Amino acid sequence: MNKSSTPIRRTLMLMMFLSSGVVLLVTSSAFCAYEFLTFRQSSIQQLQILSRAIASNSTAALAFENAEDAASVLTAFKSDPHIVAAALYDTKGNVFAAYPPGLAAARLPSHAGTGYTFGRSALTGFEPVAEGYKQLGVLFVESDLDAMYSRIKLYALILVLVGGIALSLAYLISRRLQPRLLRPILALAETAKAVAERHDYTVRAAPTGAYEFDLFTDTFNQMLTQIQESERKLHAQLGRLSLLQHITRATGERHDLPSVFQVVLTSLEENLPIDFGCFLLYDPTSKSLTVSTVGSIGRGFADKLGLSQQAEVPIDANGLSRCVAGQLVHEPDAVQVHFPFPQRLAAAGLRSIVFAPLIVENQVFGVLVCTRRRPGAFSSGECEFLKQLSEHVALASHQARLHGALQQAYDDLRQSQHTVMQQERLRALGQMASGIAHDINNAISPVSLYTESLLEREPNLSERTRGYLTTIQRAIEDVARTVSRMKEFYRERDSQLTLERVQLNRAVQQVVELTRPRWSDLPQARGAMVDLQTDLTDPMPDIMGAEHEIRDALTNLIFNAVDAMPAGGTLSVRTRKATAADGGARACIEVIDTGVGMDEDTRRRCLEPFYTTKGERGSGLGLAMVYGMVQRHSAELEIESAAGRGTTVRLSFPAYGSSVVPAATAANAAVVKRQLRILLVDDDPVLIKSLQDTLEEDGHRITATYGGNEGIEAFAAAMRRNEAFDIVVTDLGMPHVDGRKVAASIKGVSPRTPVILLTGWGQRLISTNDAPAHVNKVLAKPPRLHELRAAFAELIT
Amino acid sequence: MRLVLVAAAGLVVCMHGLRAADAPTENQVQAVFLYNFSRFVEWPAQAFAQPNDPFVIGILGSDPFGARLDEAVRDEQINGHPLKVRRFRSFAEIENCQILFVDRSEIARLGQILAALDHRSTLTVSQADGAAQRGVMIQFATENNRIRLRINVESARASGLTISSKLLRPAEIVGTDARE
User: Are residues A13 and A114 in the same domain?
Assistant: First the structure.
């Protein structure tokens, strides 16, 4: 409050005094002025009356020039002490007589005038002296103004007295009357002070009984009521705001949708509060709402309403449809709404309903349902709050979803990384194994060659020696197979697929035999019985493919089929011929089980990498590998399955032609009888020596060279001598110039000279068609004599 | 009224002129006094036969005033009666007049004169010594070079005249001597 403001009491008093004072002053002034004027008037009149009387009495004295008598007449002025001078002038203007006697002539006016005039200190008058109409002279009178001044003094005194009394009375009256005016104002002021200091808006000013003040008091009280209401609203708003903050914080800490929904519902039930609340999730494709989460307190209602989790809520042309369109829907009384869902709620005793949409990126993905028993129980503030809350919840849900997706992506990435690392380890291991295989194959090559040569060419060997050599040969074969298996073990994936003719029936038989422990022994140990039936069409057309990949795929399919039949069943593997839509011949393999089958979703996803239904036991890569193989072979994959009705997997390859049994024995029989000039190129002297020895024993002329360059030079020199080689046998892996370059060089000089490539990189499945350029034949190390001979026979015609 | 003022002014001028010529003589003053009496004495209504009859100032005996009196009354009126001066040689000539100045020369016949005037409302004036005591209503008496009036109120009252008290103030009241 302004410290300089004066209390109303003092102001009122001042007003009273001022107004009384002014009234008094004006009245007194008017009175005084009137009195003054009338006093002057009456003074003149009195003086005139006196003068006229004297003048009248003086006529005879003037007329008959009796100065003594005139003087005695003038002495009549004695009766008025204020007359200070008087004189009679005759018609000639001479002073005839004067009063008081002995008055100096200078004191008198030099000549007679007319009328009465007020001077500063005197009232002077000239009265004609006439008898009848005959003027005889003039009477001069001078009166002092003492009377007037004394009268003025008296008036002033009276004024002061009256004023004092009046003001005193005014003070007393105002003292008496002020409280009647001030009490209501002071009471109001007190009330206002109480409100301002204690913020207690429940106090009310009491009515005073005075109309204007009561009007004022009523208005004041109305204002208080409004403030009280506003404050109540503010408190409610603050409460809701803090609830919103609480919920937002709580949802921020949670990253899964059900948990977010649950914490929101619990907070609403406890703090808003609501009687029943639930979240419905909206599926835009099927246009349906399903119950996602139900508040814990309102679970009783949920049971009554049949709104348990995953229950579907139909969207009819009611509030829900509007809500799904993105509007907040508030039904103050569900009984009045003739639609099934509100009626359901109303039947359960929930009359007030609010549906708040959950919107993310302009798409409604769910609905927050809040209800209360009492009709009209949701204020507009609460509706607004629920709208805001639903926006927060939508955001939190969106974040939870994003978080889930992120987590999934992260998990996938980690899995991929794991797989890649695994593959990398295998690749490194494979490279190492490949190197080891090369070295072992090189190392055992002379052993293999000499052993074979000895057994073949030395008829005089003792039985013991022959037995030993045979054992050595078998051991070498075993070593070669072991090295080969080692190679298979790491399954090096060549960047380009090398295809060869594959007999599907044979592959099937091999795989069935290989997997016997899995489909026969293990289930039996569990007490289950898998009946494996093979139904092979014979003859089947061959296909072009990588046999090991096909075998792997079949293995996986059989494993899957067995896993699908934990209680046993029938597993059928069939091969059959088919005709494609374009008329091309197809060779099919079918793996059929009578197991649990797959539902639609699983069937749709079963080819995805890392997708598995086997939990920890499965890598999720089996069918993915099968699919990869199918893709690489331009084949087709069909999966027929239904939950509980078993699965049929069909692989359909393009047919290559009729299966021909390789004429191995016939080839073996063909031996080149004539002497051949053979150029050997290798970087391993031991291998060269052993090859040279064995081939020379066959009667061929051998030129051995060390390394690619030497070989190329030797071939060129021989060409120049016109002693061209009949055939060139070169190692693949050599420093500086490898077998491929040697072959290219020789073919550049002599295109018709056959080149045989020896490779120590394991027993790779390389079809002759896909042999490196310029190479006629690829043979694996360790080289076998009978293989070399067959190759010579094949290439030298 | 204007006329009066003009007359008064004229009188003043006249008197001023006279005084300028020489100091006013006793007779001059008496002439003015004679005229002035008309204002301080009230005549009964029967004093005039007609309302517009002249107010006559009569002079009996030798005239001491001469033309001065004529000048003094010229154009003057008393209550609507024009003033006139008449001169009588003897009392037998006396006609109706409101003021009669009895000169010293005629005082010896005063008894006859007064008797002749007995039933007339005529103010009698004289400058003769003792005239007032002998029944003349107003007598001019000279004292210390000043003219004083002696008034016989009884006489005046007997003639039905009322003399203003104002006139009586500066005057000396006398009664009729018993020896007459």
Answer: yes
A395 near B CB under 8 A: no
A543 assigned to some structural domain: yes
How many Å lie between the alpha carbon of A53 and the closest alpha carbon of chain B? Answer: 12
Q: What pLDDT score does A570 carry?
A: 92
Six-digit token pair at A318?
A: 């009611």
Omega before residue A654 within 30° of 0, cis: no
A693 lies in the same domain as A716: yes
CB contact (8 A) between residue B8 and residue A135: yes
Q: Do A60 and B147 touch (CB under 8 A)?
A: no
- The closest CB to that of B36, out of A64, A92, A135, belongs to A64
Is this prediction's ipTM beyond 0.85?
A: no
Weakest mean pLDDT among A5-14, A365-374, A782-791: A5-14
Searching chain A, which residue's CA lies closest to the CA of residue B166?
A60
DSSP A402-461: HHHHHHHHHHHHHHHHHHHHHHHHHHHHHHHHHHHHHHHHHHHHHHHHHHHHHHHH-TT-
Nearest CA in chain A to B10: A91
Average pLDDT value for chain A: 83
Mean pLDDT of A546-559: 86
Q: Which residue has the higher pLDDT, A438 or A715?
A: A715
- Domain stop point among A154, A180, A208: A154
R_g of chain A, CA atoms, integer Å: 69
With CB atoms and an 8 Å threshold, state whether A63 touches B147: no
Q: Note whether A64 contacts B39, CB cutoff 8 Å.
A: no
pLDDT at A592 > cutoff 90: yes
Q: How confident is the model at residue B18 (pLDDT cuts 50, 70, 90)?
A: very low
Domain assignment present for A707: yes
Residue B17 has pLDDT above 70, yes or no: no
Interchain pair B29, A91: CB under 8 A? no
Shared domain check, A653 and A687: no
As a whole number of angstroms, the distance between CA B100 and CA B84 comes to 12
Helical residues (DSSP H) of A621-684, grouped into ranges: 622-632, 664-669
Among all residues of chain A, which has the CA nearest to that of B14? A92
Token digits of residue A297: 């307190």
Does the beta-carbon distance from A60 to B164 stay under 8 Å?
yes
pTM of the predicted model as reported, rounded to 2 decimal places: 0.40
Over residues A715-725, the mean pLDDT reads 89
pLDDT at B65: 85
Mean pLDDT of chain B: 80
Point out the residue among B11, B29, B166 whose CB comes nearest to the CB of A60: B166
CA distance A148 to chain B (A): 33
Q: Which tens digits make up the pLDDT trace of B62-76?
A: 888 888 888 878 888
| Fold topology of B25-174 | Rossmann fold (3.40.50)
With an 8 Å Cβ cutoff, is A88 touching chain B? no
Q: Which of A277-291, A475-489, A744-758 has the lowest mean pLDDT?
A: A475-489
Domain that holds residue A33: 8-154
Separation between Cα atoms, residue A426 and residue A432, nearest integer Å: 10
A138/chain B closest Cα distance in angstroms: 13
pLDDT of residue A762: 44
Cβ distance A61 to B169 less than 8 Å, yes or no, reads: yes
A/B interface, count of CB pairs below 8 Å = 54
Are A61 and B170 in contact (CB < 8 Å)?
A: yes
- The residue among A65, A132, A130 whose CA lies nearest residue A97 is A65
Contact A133 B11 (CB under 8 A): no
Structure-token match 């074969």, residue found = A477
Of A64, A131, A132, the CB nearest to B149: A64
Highest mean pLDDT among A74-83, A489-498, A607-616: A74-83
- DSSP H helices, A273-379, are 299-305, 319-324, 340-347
Work out the number of other CB atoms within 10 angstroms of the CB of residue A196.
10
